[in-house]
Amino acid sequence: MTRTARPERHTWLFPSHLVEAARHDGAGPDQGRPRRTVRDWVVDTAIFLLAALVGVLAAETSAQYSSEVVNLVDQIVGGLACCAVWLRRRRPVGLAVTLCVVSVFAPTAGGALLAALFSVAVRRPFREVAWIGLLAVGTSTVQVFVRPEPGTSNILGIGIGVVLILLVTAWGMLVRSRRQLVEALRDRAVRAEAEAGLRAEQAQRQAREAIAREMHDVLAHRLTLLSVHAGALEFRPDAPPAQVARAAGVIRDSAHEALQDLREIIGVLRAPDEEGGAANRPQPTLVTLDSLVAEVREAGMKVVLDSTVTEPGAVPAATGRTVYRIAQEALTNARKHAPGAEVTLTLRGRPGEGLTLDVANPAPTGPVPHVPGSGQGLIGLTERATLAGGRLTHGPAPDGGFALHAWLPWPV
Asked: Boundaries of each DUF7134 domain copy (predicted)?
């Protein structure tokens, strides 16, 4: 009966005897013969010598009770049986069945039969091992009556044959179980290593995405200031010296702050919080929202902050940082798309009810200079709010302006 061979899995990780066992386990006789390694040659040679030794001992015992012709035939058959042991890797079942029949008439084939039974137990499932073992027990029993030894009782001869067959079969099944266990452990280790690599890659990708969002939120605000004031200098070269100096000072300060923020983000990559976080600048929270508003006011932007949160320090740091980033991005967008318009920030909330931030600005009254943007700021804010357990909506207002509404949880 021909069976389908198992697919080869990770054969480059397993020792040769495990790979060979996996290939032969359930494989039909038409499968290609694997190349023997040095270890395989050593094992096969040792088994051949043991089978020959057992055959020689049986031949010496049989010579005392048989004729010379019978002994000669017995020795020839025993020698051929020992040579057939070299086929145990390719034809374990066929070899075992043949030697079971041969051993009935040639006791010198007993050692080769034990080697064949061991190979079957190592390479075949239990069902085949069981019926071949029963066949070996039956033929060894018949041998006691076909080639009896006058000095040994039949019961003792049957008992010795059964014990030897059981010991060899159990040993082979133990070796098979150990090989399967080793193969399973190695396969599990390969899967665990692959899963660990995937988890590390996923964590690295998430860290990169978080860093990219953080860089966008931090640098977009600074670079927008640079773009706006550089554009003002370009379109008004005749501006008063004081106004030019003020714009140049804002450009210089914004560039300096952008570099500082960039160094901070890169520093997180070089020195994680658990190793050197104390040396990093503190992350913005709701407490620093007033500083953000004061900064944009100094840059010439009209901002009204209406907040009923009396203790911003009581807001969780993660929630406060998210509110800060949303307000920062909203002010950046208003500066780019509605320059000169007054922006209103309304902050409401209390523990248990959550924090609500509304940012609104009317439509611009004059021409709007083109300021390039990535278009990903509001998408990133929506993702940030969702990850924090809140929600964010935005869109054009009825008066032609723009409105943004965000809600974030504030646990008690």
From this structure: 39-179
